[in-house]
Amino acid sequence: MSEMPLLQVKNLHTSFFTDAGEVKAVNGISYNLDAGKVLGIVGESGSGKSVSAYSIMRILTDTGRVTGGEVLFKGENILNYTPQQMQKFRGSRISIIFQDPMTCLNPTFSIGSQLREAIRIHTDRNKEQIQARAVEMLQLVGVNEPERRLRQYPHELSGGMRQRVMIAMALACEPDILIADEPTTALDVTIQAQILELMQSLQKKLGMAIIMITHDLGVIADMCDEIIVMYGGKVCERGTADEIFYNPRHEYTKGLIRSIPRISEKHEKLVPIAGSPVDLLNLPKGCAFAARCDHAMKICLEQPPEEIRVNDFHIAACWNNVRRMMEDGQLEVKDGEEV
Amino acid sequence: MSGRKQPLVEVRNLKKYFPIKSGMMNKTLLKAVDDVSFSIDEGETLGLVGESGCGKTTVGRTLLHLYTPTSGEVYFDGKRVTEKNIGDFRKDMQIVFQDPYSSLNPRMTVSDIIGEPLDIHKLYSSRQERADRISELLTIVGLNSEHANRYAHEFSGGQRQRIGIARSLAVNPRFIVCDEPVSALDVSIQAQIINTFEELQQKLGIAYLFIAHDLLVVQHMSKRIAVMYLGHIVEIGPSMEIIKSPIHPYSESLISAIPMPDPETARHKNRIILEGDVPSPLKMPRGCPFRTRCRYATKECEESRPELKEVAPGRFVACHHR
């Protein structure tokens, strides 16, 4: 409590202004990230999980704009940084890796020149030191024959190798936070296991914090200390991995967990979430998930739920949770609220 | 095999080689599928898993003669399927593709898309009957008849996949190759489509070859699983047994690599991390295809390729050391 979190996101709003209207991709999310922790953000396509990270890095496309909120890095609001300040900040303090390592590496430059560029921009090392650092980074991420690899071009490497190179570039300047946006989605499961293992060991070795963005509940369960579940640009619930998986309080999280096949002797039928994702052009007045929720009540359609603290490790924004907690006597009925 | 009823689909020693030009005169062969055999019973689901490039999609397509097999035989209901008579079997064997975006023609309405197989096989006697059948098919897959006059772009990914399923069902097939039908979809939508496949199987008794890389999905869908690596089946058997106690070293590491959506399991899991990448099928290792990444590999593995042999009732494994 006393120490300031490394990163504080406060009531962040991001919209895309398109010909069809304002697409509200992120609608007021807040969270804290402590140094050296792994935070998972999980959600389906269009839930705003990637856009929230791009907003922090300020790498939105031209139509996108942060419309409200604050992003505090060690107490300083980085949304007020000038583009020049931001350029220095990106890569050195917070780095990002993306889903598809092929489109993120420039096919016309060698691995070495791209990796050396990342090091040169952020440090004042001389040529030999830069080269040495590049070799060292490739060794760190488990690329064999680093000197030869540095002379190769992206197309000569496999998908897993390219992702390793991306991680090397992202970590070259020892950032405090690494944002990993679906880092293993494009990879095969045995290669995915290699990359996850690598990220875990690097995280321990270098002590950076990681924000892991993914739609894969398996990857989340494997990697994360804390989990945020997003839907329709909002936080549904937030808590430790155990709380989210074993004590989910939001109907959407419960639905997600019921939707994944499990290994069991008897064949259990999956319980899918009905309907399709919310239209971000016309967000409903109440809870974004209400239209697909089996337990939607009148209040869900009328009023967006507020984030309520379930316990020390868990926050949820769901009216059904409010009802449950009131029934259990954990919450007092506030003025005029009816269930 | 005696006393066992005849399988619906049987594949024997199927091979598919693609010629690749390299240099002026040289032609190398890419052995996408190399000597694969399996069978599927009426109303059964066989899951086919493996990583990208292992040849699982090619198996599905070659089996349907969408690619001409290099060699090997395919039997449907006891009858040999050949290049010449494949037309007679198209009605019985259908396919659902992975990508619901590129597998539907954007210039056709939904009723055109679903109606096309009906037209080809002349399965109606009047316009009215055709329209009725189309709306019936849409209802079966969980859409409604008002959708018939719309175009594919008006639908979400999950709905498009339903259109693809309706198209394959139009001719009342007895067997469908499902080529990664849910991997392009979000988790909640994925569950809807999986349930649709299951309901159809219960209702219509259709057999599936269910191809996917997601082992949790395959395990859920299938009675038996075949694991492929570099064009070969390395292990085949009942799905629960393969998942719980894999025998082939590759299946073992593949299954240990599945990220389990359960923090407790994840904490206690012993992941077997494979070294390196899958070798290029153009430079296939001699002997066992898996030996370059296998921790049990010996000289024997280099010298000869292990054949699939039955190690327990219904379980076949291709490994010298098991």
Kindly describe this structure:
The complex is a heterodimer of chains A (339) and B (322). By secondary structure, chain A is α/β, with parallel strands linked by helices. Helix content of chain A is 36%, strand content 23%. Chain A has 13 helices and 12 strands. In chain A, helix 4 (111-122) packs across helix 5. Chain A is globular and about 65 Å long. The mean pLDDT of chain A is 91. With 322 residues, chain B is an alpha/beta fold. Chain B has one domain (9-92, 173-317): P-loop containing nucleotide triphosphate hydrolases (Rossmann fold, 3-Layer(aba) Sandwich). Chain B has 11 helices and 12 strands. An 8-stranded mixed beta sheet of chain B has the order 6-7-8-3-9-10-12-11, with helices on both faces. Chain B has a 4-stranded antiparallel beta sheet with strand order 2-1-4-5. The radius of gyration of chain B is 21 Å and the shape is globular. The model of chain B has no long low-confidence stretch (mean pLDDT 91). Chain A binds chain B through residues 44-45, 158, 160-161, 188-194, 196-197, 215-222, 241-242, 245-246, 255-263, 265, 267, 269-274, 276-277, and chain B through 51-52, 156, 158-159, 186-192, 194-195, 198, 213, 215-217, 219-221, 240, 243-244, 253-254, 256-266, 271, 273-274, 277-278.
The most extensive interface, with participating residues per chain, is: A-B, 45 and 43 residues
- Give the low-confidence spans of chain B: none
Helix content of chain A: 25-40%
**SSE run of chain A:** EEEHEEHEHHHHHEHEHEEHHHEEH
Shape of chain A: globular
The total beta strand count of chain B reads: 12
Mean pLDDT of chain A: 91
The secondary-structure class of chain A comes to alpha/beta
Number of helices of chain B: 11
Give the N-terminus to C-terminus distance of chain A in angstroms. 34 Å
Sheet-strand content of chain B, in percent, reads 15-25%
Could you give me the name of the CATH homologous superfamily of chain B? P-loop containing nucleotide triphosphate hydrolases
